[in-house]
Amino acid sequence: MTTSPPSPAGPLHAQVQRALDQAVADGGVPGMVAEVRDPRGRWFGSAGVADTRTGRERQPNERFRIGSAAKPFTATVVLQLAAEGKLSLDDTVDTWLPGLVKGNDDDGGTITVRHLLNHTSGIFNYGNDEEEFAKFSGPAWLEHRYDTYTPEHLVKIGLRNPRSFEAPGDGFVYSNTGYILAGLIVEKVTGKTLAGEIARRIVRPLGLTGTYLPAAETRIRGPHPRHYSTLFATGTDAEVYDVTDQSATTGWAAGGVVSTVGDLHRFTGALLRGELLPLAQRREMFTMVKTGVKLPDGTWTDTWIPGTTYGTGVWSWELSCGVRVWGIGGAITGGFSFAMGTRDAERVIATHMNIDRYGRYNSLDMAKTVIQAVFCPSGSPTRSD
């Protein structure tokens, strides 16, 4: 697929560039890129470096780990299979994976494929398991960075914890475990690998040039920035580690994909414009649920990012100026990635920073600032959350 050269920077793009520069200067980000596509064309901006050791600059064609932005790839494959009549979103997990989800009040006979895709299953997120989290935070991560997991093992980790709420559909709690199960269902239905189905159904039809789901390999293919992390340390002076090489098996269908800003743009635009799914499945993808649960006293509590709703792999985010954007996003040890746009895909930004930070220097806040530079121009009103 050929791409047009970047368009000259205008006032809006200058605002995005300032936000990128601020993320590097004030937010503790080694390097950040953004690509904006709107009626004026395509604009690419960058700040900081791809490698703190060499000072190498960031480039448009770099590949990086996209974390949970992998989920819409898995969801799209599932929805395509539904469109082909090979499965139904109303199928239970037991229909395809009999006996795998059982015990600790989890029951694969009551949890549907739809519950998995919109995080309303109630199955515990394996990434929050106390034992596993201890392995993958702090210096212990360096000892376990190459550990390999089968999808079935990840599911078992999730299932050894209590459910997040009583009955499937009663609330929303973000769960990587649900997407691992969805990936296993894809492989059961098709008899082929999830990686192969993503390549056949999404990567090749869209002409994506830097997107793939790794298997056991721990290095990123082709040009890529170094990935950095404080390993969940929150202090402003927290030590930063190079975490570029790591096992992708801990994320797989929920967070293992590698991509580029250009590919994320093309994929997200295709989802927003409805290029990959028939009408019925597009409606399913954008049928949104509130990201929270109702407490026993009847009050509501957010369980994810405030101001969001979630569909099947895609989500919406109300920005501080009141504008709502739609798209995909994710975090992984070593980076944050987003591709968000207007519902008609007339304006979309894809962005990546090569670090994950929490606490005062919060990568989510930095990413939101860059996204808002596109959709909340200077002087637009803002509201307090």
Automatic annotation (TrEMBL):
Stretches assigned to the Beta-lactamase-related domain: 16-358
Keyword Hydrolase: yes
Coiled-coil zones: none
Keyword Hydrolase: yes
GO molecular function: hydrolase activity
Swiss-Prot/TrEMBL keywords: Hydrolase
Pfam family, one: Beta-lactamase
InterPro entries: AmpC-like (IPR050491), Beta-lactam-related (IPR001466), Beta-lactam/transpept-like (IPR012338)
Protein name (Swiss-Prot/TrEMBL): Serine hydrolase
Organism whose genome encodes this protein: Nonomuraea corallina
